[in-house]
Design goal:
Number of domains: 2
Shape: elongated
Number of strands: 14
Low-confidence stretches: none
Strand content: 15-25%
Largest sheet: 8 strands, mixed
Mean pLDDT: 92
Radius of gyration: 21 Å
Helix content: 40-55%
Strand order of the largest sheet: 3-4-2-1-5-6-7-8
Structural class: alpha/beta
Number of helices: 16
């Protein structure tokens, strides 16, 4: 079957240099669909200097400018940004027309829309008369897409009205075992974070907890992998407390480099704090993500210290890590110190996680998606 995977807000480069969740997710789902015998055409975001079309492995990558004549990076720099944001339905509609042409050109049988594309897939589905499956990551999705979709794949049903929920199928996120796996490398770092430095990632809490951790374990090394909106604030906080010698910030790295850093760390953390975010509608829905980083940490055989949310509790047990109270600096520091003082527990929990991770490969996620595709 030929599938058009519409992910117009996701940038996919050769080698996955972005190393962010949206790219990892989209690429992994597409790759697993291709393994099942489908021909997959991904419609992704185009930046300046990108090829419009590129084949990466078995995947066909078609890149389109989100602003039609400009990339989203250029639009964000424009002084007209707020005005253009109000009118974003216009470029989305025009993108839908372009995607419908691709669907016809490559004779695609089905459209899979990543919800942040906000109706681009639904427009293409309507114009090409091809069925649509909607993949919802959070509360951001087009109602037109939800109505148009034959089925909806999501991490939770809380975003949908009761009559839409009937066609929602629940899945978890996953990890790619060809990229993330345990490797017996020399341990250079004590505490590792990998992610996008989002408002809700809780890195400010980690920096404050570091002072307490360093009081007990003066030589502790913290490594922060990735970059994003809170990166500058985190760096400023590290400087404010004089912790520059204890923190290594790598910036964004290719995934194959990220996994090496994780494997060189003793403990991995997911210190989420949704109260720090004005975005996300967490006050209404609570923490609702299926966290990629936790599956990737598990795959590398690392014990996990994470925030005690219901969603996280369903993944991280006492056998696999420790949970701390949201926003509690003393509790976060205490849990990390407890593990650092118990090397045997670090090893035990890491070994358990390596086995547990096999439940959460992208292959197992895509098998569920494939059932809907075959229907």
């Amino acid at each position: 079957m030929r599938i058009c995977y519409v992910a117009t807000t996701v940038h996919i480069s050769r080698g996955l240099k972005e190393a962010i969740g949206a790219t990892t997710h989209t690429y992994a789902v597409a790759k697993e669909l291709a393994k099942l015998g489908h021909e997959v055409h991904i419609v992704s975001e185009r930046f300046e200097g990108d090829l419009e079309y590129e084949k990466i492995g078995k995947l066909h990558i078609h890149r389109l400018l989100r602003g039609i004549v400009r990339s989203s990076r250029q639009v964000k720099k424009s002084r007209w940004r707020k005005f253009l944001k109000i009118l974003k339905f216009i470029p989305n509609f025009l993108l839908g027309i372009k995607v419908s042409r691709l669907v016809r050109k490559y004779n695609c049988d089905l459209i899979l829309e990543r919800a942040h594309s906000l109706g681009v897939g639904a427009v293409a589905s309507f114009l090409s008369a091809k069925p649509l499956i909607l993949e919802v990551i959070d509360y951001i999705y087009s109602k037109f897409s939800a109505l148009r979709a034959k089925s909806i794949i999501a991490y939770t049903k809380i975003f949908f009205s009761p009559w839409i929920r009937k066609k929602v199928f629940i899945v978890e996120a996953g990890f790619d075992p060809e990229i993330f796996y345990a490797n017996d490398l020399p341990l250079k770092y004590d505490v590792c974070y990998a992610g996008s430095f989002k408002e809700w990632d809780g890195l400010e809490d980690l920096v404050r907890a570091a002072r307490k951790i360093l009081a007990r374990f003066p030589g502790t090394k913290f490594i922060l992998l990735g970059g994003g909106v809170r990166e500058k604030k985190v760096k400023e906080l590290i400087r404010f407390y004089g912790l520059e010698k204890s923190f290594i910030l790598t910036g964004r790295k290719p995934l194959k480099k990220v996994v090496d850093y994780i494997n060189q760390s003793k403990i991995c953390i997911a210190p989420f704090n949704v109260t720090r975010s004005k975005k996300g509608r967490f006050a209404k829905y609570g923490y609702y993500f299926s966290p990629l980083k936790i599956f990737e940490y598990m795959a590398c055989g690392k014990p996990i210290v994470a925030t005690n949310y219901p969603k996280i509790r369903s993944l991280v047990s006492k056998k696999s890590g420790l949970l701390f109270k949201e926003g509690s600096i003393p509790d976060l520091a205490s849990k990390i110190c407890w593990l650092l003082s118990r090397p045997k527990k670090i090893k035990e929990k890491g070994e358990y996680n390596k086995k547990l991770a096999q439940k959460y490969t992208w292959a197992s996620v895509v098998r569920k998606i494939n059932e809907l595709i075959e229907e």
